[in-house]
Structure formats: structure tokens, C-alpha cells
């Protein structure tokens, strides 16, 4: 009491203890529950990693099947929730649509309101894992005026999501295994990243004992911003602008270095990584694979590579330890898969969902948890006396 630490952006404040994700920003190390991200990327799947993050251990074959089956049984949205989509303008950004629909889950499942009822928390966990992909696909369908497709529960989570997003009722949807694998990998790589802005938001909201749906809905809105999840869309917009400007990478880097109009090299820099983001390394390879298959976006990939090379050899970026982060290449892959730019951040949300859930659950079961309530350094007026309106 009496002494308050001033730490804007919580750069040096450990707000919680957590056993979910380990990051060594200097070395570029990322581990989920102790497992290196490189090993998980190579051998695991998004659904298995979701289980690992939420329950703490890799599942047995049976546990994994049960988890996947339970999720599959909850993929449908309540028909009344479906009508929510009619109320949004057609050109609405899909992130607030996603957040609103997740928020509305609290009204459909009022059994979720007690955050300490373990059975209902478990059910809310499964409902979120199952319904968020359906909501996301509907948000997309709404934006292009196509009919919603009901989930096909014979498919896995990623396959189902791709089919609901790109399929049409009138014709069978053929899943492309390269796309399925790439999207599964991208979700896996985004699945958790300890106390980032959206996860901290989920925790802060949840610390007031708000339920899981309410907390995740808030997390989705934190992810919306261009400095966080919105960066993947912003990278692509930046690459498009450079392309329209004749592909002049040097000119763009000069603008960034001169801080012209506050322009930043999107997809570069990270609060924690002062080295190459290990996720970016894995993604760069996937970008090559997917783009060589679809043939789309080659010119933008070329610009991205030249931009990266140019930045990595420039003193401005070297001095500040700015390296490509997870989002530098993801946008190119999403674009090659056929997702519109505005939808990229929704894909980030789908990937981050198990991480948010894991953190909320960890916090709720931690006896040390207290309501999040930061202090401030007051810089306003000293006490002064009220003046009647006639004297002002
Ligand atoms: N381009 C140009 N300069 C940069 C960049 C960048 N992308 N990032 C940081 N800097 C500079 C910044 O101007 C500052 O320089 P100076 O000391 O001369 O003022 C210095 O580097 C330190 O930056 P900071 O803003 O204090 O760093 P931060 O830890 O507060 O910000 C960040 C981290 C990720 C918000 C920032 O690097 C950034 O804005 N990057 C671009 C957006 C982006 O790619 N975000 C995705 C992050 S990864 C996925 C996620 O977590 O959502």
C-alpha cells in the first residue's frame, strides 16, 4: 500500500502464475505445456493441442476420440441464434459479429452462468470449441450473401469449418488435403501465447467471475485491434500497397524508419520475442508449400521475402530487435486459401480459442486468483471548488 509501480503496457508486471505456455523471447523458444512448438507442429494436430492446452496433458487415443466426438455433437447453432446474423449489416466486419454471437451464447445456455460449476464449465468449453467455427463460417456466409450450411459432423473441426465456409448446398464440397493440413497447422501455431492482450483480457473479465462465454467474447474484441490479431490483415494490406506502388521495398522501409505518418512494418516486432518468432519460421515454409500449390499471391510473397530480407539487414530493425512475427506470412496463406482479408483475424480467433479457454479455467481453479484491479498514477487536478454555471 502507498507505493504503486508505474508500468504502462504491463511490460514488467507478472499478473499471474501460469503453467500453460512457456516463452523465451531472447532465444525464440515457445512451448505448450512443456512441448516445443516445433515438435507439436510436426507431429500433432489442432484438436490434440487444444486438449493439451485445456487439460494439461496429451490425450490418450480414447480421450482424444471422446473429446473430438463431444465437440462434434455440439456444432449446431440454436436456430434463434442463427437469426442474429440477419440483424447485422451485410458489410459488417466479421470480428464484432463473432464476438456478439459468442456473447449471445450466455443467453442460450443459462446453465453457464456459474463459473464454479465444473460440469457446466466443461460443457461451455465443448460448446465453444464446437460452435465458434460454425459462427465464424456463418459470419462469412452472411458477408457474401450465401446460405448457411449446417455442420457435417462426420468431418473433423477444420474440415467442417472449411466446408461450412466455402461449400454450397447445391454441390458437394471437395476438401483439399493441403489446405486442411495448412489451416490445421496455423490454428495449432496460434493456439496459445501466454499473457498477450486478448488472453489478459479474458483473464481480467473472468476475474470478476463473469462466465466463460462473456470472457471469451471480450477476448475476441481485444484481438480485433491491428496491433494484435488485426496485424495479419494489416500485413496483407501493406503488401498490396507496396505492390501498387511498384513493389519498391526500399521506399517503404525508408518510410517506416522515418516514422512517416506513424507507419510500421506490420508483421514485425513483438513485445516478448527479441529474436525470430519460432512460429514465423514454421509458417514461412508452409507459405511456400501452399502458394506453390495454388499459384496465387506469388508476387506478394516475393515482396514479403524481399521486405523481410531488407528489414533484417537494416540497423533500424537490428538495433530494436525487430524480427518477423507469427503474422508476417499468415495473411498470404489465408489469401491463397480464398479467405478475404477482413476474415483473417477471425481465423486467428479460431486458433486462439483453446488458449483462452485454458487460461480462464486455470485462473478459476487457482486459489490465488483475485479480481483484476490495476492501480493508477493520478495526474489530474488537485481539489478545487465547484463553480455554479452562471460563473463559468
Ligand atoms: N515497425 C517499425 N518500428 C517498430 C515496429 C514495427 N513493426 N515495432 C516496433 N517498432 C519500433 C518502435 O517504433 C519503437 O521504436 P522507438 O524506440 O524509436 O520509438 C521500438 O521499435 C519499440 O517498439 P514498441 O512499440 O515500444 O514495442 P511494443 O512491445 O510496445 O510493441 C508490437 C510490440 C507487436 C505492438 C509492435 O512491434 C508492432 O506494432 N508491430 C506491428 C504490429 C504487429 O505485427 N503485431 C502483431 C504482433 S504478433 C501477433 C499478436 O500478438 O497479435
TrEMBL record:
Domain of life (superkingdom): Bacteria
Q: Name one Pfam family in it.
A: Citrate_synt
UniProt entry keywords in alphabetical sequence:
Acyltransferase, Transferase, Tricarboxylic acid cycle
Reaction(s) catalysed (UniProt annotation):
oxaloacetate + acetyl-CoA + H2O = citrate + CoA + H(+)
Keyword Acyltransferase attributed:
yes
Query: What InterPro entries does this protein map onto?
Result: Citrate_synth-like_lrg_a-sub, Citrate_synth-like_sm_a-sub, Citrate_synthase, Citrate_synthase_AS, Citrate_synthase_bac-typ, Citrate_synthase_sf, Citrate_synthase_typ-I
What are its GO biological-process terms? tricarboxylic acid cycle
Q: Where is the active site?
A: 270, 327
Task: Write down the CDD domains for this protein, in alphabetical order.
Answer: EcCS_like (cd06114)
- Which pathway is it part of? Carbohydrate metabolism; tricarboxylic acid cycle; isocitrate from oxaloacetate: step 1/2
Which Gene Ontology cellular-component terms appear in the entry? cytoplasm
- Keyword Protein biosynthesis, does the record have it? no
> What protein family is recorded?
Belongs to the citrate synthase family.
The protein here is known as: Citrate synthase
Amino acid at each position: 500500500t502507498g507505493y504503486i509501480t508505474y508500468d504502462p503496457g504491463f511490460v514488467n508486471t507478472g499478473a499471474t502464475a501460469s503453467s500453460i505456455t512457456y516463452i523465451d523471447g531472447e532465444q525464440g523458444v515457445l512451448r505448450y505445456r512443456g512441448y516445443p512448438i516445433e515438435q507439436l507442429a510436426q507431429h500433432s494436430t489442432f484438436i490434440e493441442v487444444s486438449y493439451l492446452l485445456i487439460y494439461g496433458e496429451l490425450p490418450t487415443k480414447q480421450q482424444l476420440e471422446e473429446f473430438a466426438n463431444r465437440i462434434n455433437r455440439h456444432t449446431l447453432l440454436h436456430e434463434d441464434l442463427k437469426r442474429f446474423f440477419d440483424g447485422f449489416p451485410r458489410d459488417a466486419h466479421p470480428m464484432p459479429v463473432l464476438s456478439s454471437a459468442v456473447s449471445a451464447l450466455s443467453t442460450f445456455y443459462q446453465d453457464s452462468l456459474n463459473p464454479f460449476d465444473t460440469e457446466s464449465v466443461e460443457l461451455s468449453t465443448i460448446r465453444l470449441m464446437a460452435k465458434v467455427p460454425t459462427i465464424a463460417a456463418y459470419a462469412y456466409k452472411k458477408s457474401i450473401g450465401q446460405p448457411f450450411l449446417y455442420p457435417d459432423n462426420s468431418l473433423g473441426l477444420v474440415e467442417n469449418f472449411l466446408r461450412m465456409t466455402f461449400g454450397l448446398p447445391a454441390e458437394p464440397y471437395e476438401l483439399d488435403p493441403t489446405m486442411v493440413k495448412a489451416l490445421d497447422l496455423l490454428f495449432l501455431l496460434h493456439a496459445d501465447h501466454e499473457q498477450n492482450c486478448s488472453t489478459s483480457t479474458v483473464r481480467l473479465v473472468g476475474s470478476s467471475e463473469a462466465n466463460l462465454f462473456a470472457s471469451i467474447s471480450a477476448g475476441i474484441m481485444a484481438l480485433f485491434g491491428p496491433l494484435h490479431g488485426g496485424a495479419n490483415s494489416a500485413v496483407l494490406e501493406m503488401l498490396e500497397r507496396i505492390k501498387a506502388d511498384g513493389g519498391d521495398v526500399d521506399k517503404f522501409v525508408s518510410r517506416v524508419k522515418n516514422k512517416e505518418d506513424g507507419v510500421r512494418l506490420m508483421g514485425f516486432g513483438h513485445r516478448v520475442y527479441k529474436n525470430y518468432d519460432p512460429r514465423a519460421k514454421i509458417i514461412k515454409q508452409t507459405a511456400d508449400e501452399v502458394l506453390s500449390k495454388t499459384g496465387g499471391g506469388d508476387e506478394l510473397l516475393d515482396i514479403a521475402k524481399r521486405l523481410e530480407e531488407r528489414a533484417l539487414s537494416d540497423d533500424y530493425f537490428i538495433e530494436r530487435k525487430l524480427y518477423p512475427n507469427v503474422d508476417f506470412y499468415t495473411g498470404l496463406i489465408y489469401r491463397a486459401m480464398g479467405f478475404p482479408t477482413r476474415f483473417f483475424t477471425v481465423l486467428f480467433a479460431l486458433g486462439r480459442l483453446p488458449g483462452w479457454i485454458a487460461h480462464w479455467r486455470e485462473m478459476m481453479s487457482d486459489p490465488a486468483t483475485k479480481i483484476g484491479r490495476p492501480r493508477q498514477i493520478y495526474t489530474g487536478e488537485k481539489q478545487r471548488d465547484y463553480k455554479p454555471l452562471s460563473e463559468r
